[in-house]
Design brief:
This protein has 218 residues and is an alpha/beta fold. The protein has 5 helices and 6 strands. It has a single domain (3-186), classed as 3-Layer(aba) Sandwich (Rossmann fold). It has helices at residues 16-27, 39-50, 66-79, 105-133, 156-175; strands at 7-10, 31-36, 57-60, 85-88, 136-141, 181-186. A 6-stranded parallel sheet has the order 3-2-1-4-5-6, sandwiched between helices. The longest helix has 29 residues, at 105-133.
Amino acid sequence: MRAADRFALVTGGNRGIGLETCRQLAARGVNVILASRDPDRGAAAVEALAREGLTLVQCTLDVTRPEDIELALEFVRSTCGRLDVLVNNAGVYLDEQTSILDLSLTDFRLTMETNFYGPLSLCRAFAPLMRRQRYGRIVNVSSGYGALSEMGAGAPAYSISKAALNALTCVLADELRGGDIKVNAACPGWVHTDMGGPAAPRRDPGRPRPAGRAASRW
């Protein structure tokens, strides 16, 4: 199929890595659904990309809300008829330099709900559609913090949620073998975004590069 016949959904698409993913997919001719928790920020992102000559559609989606996921699925079914690419990018990072002994269970649960259960729920919603069409690409945006070989103190909920996301990637990839469906995890590195912060050595295209260098475990 041509790129113009493909449809992609990117969660957390209104800023940072998600926004750049939307930009690059749209530039290649893919029909992109930019999903964001905040509808106003999502609309602003779509308008900004439109000024670059790119056409996208917006979908309001909080990955922690089952009703939002169901509405997104119905939107894709009714508007597109298929989904070829799912990028699970939305995430939170609430526990920088926090001890696992001190982090509140509220923040721990919110991190797991967003970074693991959200992608799991989206995969469960859209993988059957990909199976029926016998094509699909699922990309889970992960982090080196989720690698067991690099696991350590400092961001416990984030690290554990990304380790769980990596495990989901392996299990789902095996589950979906036999059709043209591929499931991968991607580590984009430590990027200068709202989440990554100004010390990140990898530049967000929309931001100036900070002076100096910083070590990264991402």
